[in-house]
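QA checklist item 7 of 12: single-chain prediction sanity check.
[x] sequence parsed
[x] length recorded as 181
[x] structure emitted
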Amino acid sequence: MVSSMLKLSKLGSLGLRNDDLEKHIVIREAKSSDTSMLLAIRNDPENYKWFYNNAPVTVEEHAHWLNERIWTANFFTLVAEIDGEVIGIAYLSDMESTTPKVSVSIKEGKRGIGVGTKLLQELISRSRTASIKTLFAEIKISNTASFQLFSRHGFVAIQNNSKIVTNFCHDTLEMSLNLGF
């Protein structure tokens, strides 16, 4: 992990732009050995503040979630890594619906270098291959970074909502992407 951070720092110190750094990002399917790295990303306060449940995920909950995803929706559970270090995750949920929901989370210190872009591009590509017609994103209105990411990839706002989850009201923006089928 330290060598990955040094390599990333070295790449950045060489004056490489984000799109050059982006070339070093590998996207692949999640696997069981990613459990601890993905839990750290999911439990990063900067990430989970955008979830509806503003509490960290337990080790047991996460292990169950990831194992279920690997066995039932592997094609749609992707990780991004640089030099073996997992730095992001993207996945589809609600696969039984006609409009699966997209989620993207990036590791602290790795945001803004194109990780989310590469993950979302691959997820969209795989969704097209699987003949999924529409993708859906539900974003807290205050999450401008996610709004910009999804907008850049063709998602359009379809409505604003207020969602009550465990006695908290969250203002959300629903976005969708028609995949052209």
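[x] summary fact logged: The helical segments are 2-13, 18-22, 35-42, 45-48, 59-73, 115-129, 144-152.
[ ] second reviewer sign-off
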